[in-house]
Amino acid sequence: MPRAESLLLALSSLCMMSDIQHNLNKWDILNTSVPVVFPHGTLADGSDLEILRENNQFIAITPKSEHHWVHGQLFTSGIMEQSGLGIDTSFTSSSDILTQMWFQLQSTRNTRSNPAHLHQKLPNNTVMTVKQAFLLGTPNGGLALRRPDFGVIKKGAKADIVVLNSNNTAFSAYYDPIAAVVLHANVGDIGHVLADGRFVKRDFHLRGYDWRGIQTNFTRSTKKIQQVPLGYQNKYGTVRAQALSQFGLAEDTYENVATVNVEPSKL
């Protein structure tokens, strides 16, 4: 197995764990000009944040899927300065950053406010602003890839631009355009999209794409993925163990997250 692929599999086993400091920094893997983006980082804490900050590395937060899979975001609000937003897989959540911005905003506000709620009180300050959510979904993704020309509109930046239709009642309720976008925008509001300066969507219609063909291929791929045999998990576990062993790691090092039974909700 190529070492690069082994490293990728090894890092994927670290994605939810608070192991960045103890298992990567000591190998000097993070101190590199190559961007290393960790998926989720659900259990990363303050010590991991220091390591990420020192090495200018980032975590990709995918709030909708992290809630869908009940991974939680208890520590996420403490590492957001070294994070950007992602979408994960589109079969569990919408595949757009607009929704992720809104979801991360509300998730962080809820998590940060819980200590007050436990004392039957309400917070008297804003624990996360719409601007912070907007930055997570725009320039922070570029910074994670060491590309400050991504996610911004300025001279010399990459001309990837999304133009939203603000002619609706939800947008009209806000004088702050960032608040309007984070709190109310959805994919149906996207009128134009420019990729590298070229229109790929204009007047709400895709340009140069065979949508029928894309939809057919997507449906075919979905059925194929859903029919993957259960034995694949065992095969993947073996491959992952081999990858971890190349870096002197044990498989059970990253499979020891404690689990508990949780009382289900009732209607």
Give an account of the 3D structure.
With 267 residues, the protein is of the alpha/beta class. The protein has a domain at 32-150: Alpha-Beta Barrel (TIM Barrel), CATH 3.20.20.140. Helices cover 42% and strands 10% of the residues. It is built from eleven helices and seven strands. The chain has helices at 3-14, 20-23, 46-55, 63-68, 97-118, 130-137, 139-144, 169-172, 177-184, 211-226, 231-246, and strands at residues 37-39, 58-61, 83-85, 161-164, 190-195, 198-202, 205-206. The strands form two sheets. It has a four-stranded antiparallel sheet with strand order 4-5-6-7, with no helix packed on it. The protein has a three-stranded parallel sheet with strand order 1-2-3. A hairpin with a 2-residue loop joins β6 and β7. α1 (3-14) crosses α11 (231-246), α5 (97-118) crosses α9 (177-184) and α6 crosses α9 (177-184). The longest helix is centred in the middle third of the chain and has 22 residues, at 97-118. It is globular. The model is unreliable at 1-10 (pLDDT under 50).
User: Major sheet: size, sense and barrel closure?
Assistant: 4 strands, antiparallel
Number of helices: 11
CATH-defined architecture of the domain at 32-150: Alpha-Beta Barrel
Question: What's the level 1 CATH class of the domain at 32-150?
Answer: Alpha Beta
Rounded radius of gyration (Å): 21 Å
Protein name: Amidohydrolase-related domain-containing protein
Pfam families: Amidohydro_1
Domain Amidohydrolase-related: 33-200
GO molecular function: deaminase activity; metal ion binding
